[in-house]
Amino acid sequence: MCRVIDLQQAVLAKNDACAHTLREDLAARGTAVVNLLSSPGSGKTALLERELTLARSRGVPVAALTADLATENDAVRLARSGVPVKQVLTDGLCHLEAEMLGGHLDGWLPSDTRLLFVENVGNLVCPASYDLGETLRIVLASVTEGEDKPLKYPTAFGLAHLVVVTKTDIARAVGFDEAAFRANVERVNPGVEVVLTSVRGGEGDGVLLDRALAARDGGPVHIPVMTRQSHHVHDVGHRHPHDRGTADRVADSGAVGSSRS
Amino acid sequence: MHEMSIALAVVDQVESAARPDGATGVSSVRLEIGELAGVVPDALAFSFQLACEGTVLAGAELITEAVVARARCIPCAESWPVGMPPRLSCPGCGGASVELLSGRELRIAGVSWHDAQVPTPTHEER
Ligand SMILES: Nc1nc2c(ncn2[C@@H]2O[C@H](COP(=O)(O)OP(=O)(O)OP(=O)(O)O)[C@@H](O)[C@H]2O)c(=O)[nH]1
Ligand SMILES: [Mg+2]
Ligand SMILES: [Zn+2]
Ligand SMILES: [Zn+2]
Question: For the whole model, what pTM was predicted?
Answer without folding.
Answer: 0.90
